[in-house]
Write a structure and sequence with these properties.
The chain is an alpha+beta fold and 230 residues long. The chain has one domain. The protein has 5 helices and 12 strands. The protein has helices at 4-8, 30-36, 43-50, 136-142, 186-198; strands at residues 22-28, 69-77, 82-87, 93-94, 99-102, 118-124, 127-135, 154-158, 163-171, 202-208, 212-219, 223-229. Strands 4-3-2-1-12-11-10 form a 7-stranded antiparallel β-sheet, covered by helices on one side. A 5-stranded antiparallel β-sheet has the order 5-6-7-9-8. The two termini are 31 Å apart.
């Protein structure tokens, strides 16, 4: 099976002959996600669920409502396609952009016995999928009542846990290619923008001419992502 680096073209040394450490900051739009999968939350419900803005450290289940998930790619092995990712505030290391966060805090509007929804992001064949993980029994009851069933792009049943992952968006894997090129020509930049546009993402530069530019932003209804060279 090809490595993740092979699938992105990172292991083709003719073009990908260097690696630049970089940072991705994921800002999940949790309110929009919960509404899309069938939770009926008022603005006040959501404020109570999120709670007050906590200090950046230590990380807790309510932080995801207020802070982005920061993933710093500190190293990459061109031979094996293995990367080392540090999740700087939430803690821990991984070799893929795979992460989960239980939506903790008060359960106003979310009180379903012993479980709480979870945000997830994970690699897949079409990019990095993200969405909400819920109890399968609850989902079977809720799915027929959805206002917009097309918002759910993919369902992944975890039968051994009685859970299902509901994908609400896919971040194209080509996003990270720019950090593995000796040069990033305009043609590559235009191709990346076109790819994101075809997946219903908006792209923008972070910063301005006065203060300087410090990365790229990619956003849709359910996620904002900052991509920055370190």
């Amino acid at each position: 099976m090809p490595s993740w680096g092979d699938r992105l073209g990172h292991n083709k040394r003719s073009k990908a002959n260097r690696f630049t450490p970089y940072r991705l900051i994921f800002y999940p739009q949790i309110y929009n996600m919960l509404q899309a999968i069938g939770f009926s939350l008022s603005a006040e419900d959501y404020r109570m669920l999120a709670g007050d803005v906590p200090p950046i450290q230590p990380w807790s289940p309510t932080h995801i409502f207020h802070y982005g998930l920061t993933a710093v790619v500190v190293s990459y092995d061109h031979g094996t396609g293995t990367q080392v990712i540090h999740w700087t505030y939430s803690g821990g290391y991984s070799t893929t952009f795979e992460h989960g966060e239980r939506l903790g805090g008060p359960t106003v509007g979310l009180a379903h016995a012993e479980w709480q929804p979870e945000f997830f992001i994970k690699p897949a064949g079409d990019g990095y999928r993200f969405g909400i993980r819920v109890v399968d029994g609850w989902w079977k009851q809720t799915k027929p009542k959805l206002i917009d069933p097309a918002a759910i792009l993919h369902e992944e049943l975890e039968w051994n846990f009685g859970r299902v992952k509901l994908t609400l968006g896919v971040l194209p894997s080509e996003l990270t290619r720019q950090f593995f090129l000796s040069a990033y020509p305009q043609k590559e930049q235009d191709a990346l923008k076109a790819k994101f546009s075809s997946h219903h993402w908006e792209t923008d530069r972070l910063g301005n001419a006065e203060i300087g530019y410090f990365g790229e932003e990619y956003k849709n209804k359910y996620m904002r992502v900052w991509a920055q060279v370190l």
